[in-house]
Design brief:
The protein is of the alpha+beta class. Among the domains are: 69 residues, no CATH class; 45 residues; 27 residues, no CATH class; 41 residues, no CATH class. It has six helices and 14 strands. A three-stranded mixed beta sheet has the order 9-11-10, with no helix packed on it. Strands 12-14-13 form a three-stranded mixed beta sheet, covered by helices on one side. The chain has a two-stranded antiparallel sheet with strand order 1-2. The longest helix is centred in the N-terminal third of the chain and has 41 residues. The protein starts with 17 loop residues before the first strand and ends with a helix.
Amino acid sequence: MTTRAFITGQISQTANATAISVGNSTVNTTINATSFSGTANNANNLGGTSLTTLQTQITGNSSTAYSNAVTNASYMAGQAYSNAVANAAAVYQTAAGLSANVLVLTSNATTYLGNSSGTIGNVASWITGNSATAYTNATSYADSKAATAYSNAVANAAAVYQTTAGLSANVLLLTSNSTTYLGNSSGTIGNVSSWITGNSATAYSNATIFAANASNINTGTVSTARLGSGTANSLTILYGNSVWAAAPSSTNASALTTGTVNTALLGSGTANSTTILYGNNVWAAAGSSGLTQAQTLQLVSLRL
């Protein structure tokens, strides 16, 4: 197919006359303005062939194509039907054949079970015979195991447990021993009673001795009744004769004939081997108040 050039648009300059092809026609034209014109036979020709000829060719070819398509379709449909019938006969069964087979199956179902030897009579015989054999075997096995279990139980019972007669004899022996012994063969009632009496006396004696010794007291508080006679309260004091009596209204230093006066009652300060009590009632080192030790002692004697 020849490519044709189409020129349109505005031309600003005049061109020389030249051959211009438009469709199937070639014309000589001069472009001397802004447009050009020419004639062509495109309305009557296509590729050098007239439209009438093309129409005749299209109509004839279409008719031939339709006829060929119908002929081919009819042939293929006939072939498909023939093949389908042949395959159906080879693969599927007719309704009559199927009905006949159903009747045979129904008849066999009432006579056979599994295969040709599995008649109802044979199956019933097998069940009855096998059931009897199974029952006999089960009974024999159970009797054998039961006998073995009983024998083992009797043997174990004899080794582990006591007979009723033996148990009764042991109960009588235990009852008799419980009235005579306590703990073991040496624990007779007389022995136990002797042990209790003897140990009680020893325990009482030891407790009395321990309690009578004041040096054993290391905790608690001694009752005032154990310290002396009389009434012990906030108005009485315990005298050396172990009597609780009223305290004297005042104590004269000249009345002190026994005992030792607490150094804290004599004065303040620390009373020890390096201090002396001065006349101002102060415990201090000797010479710290300007008095000699002899003078200080003399003052103390005068105050007493």
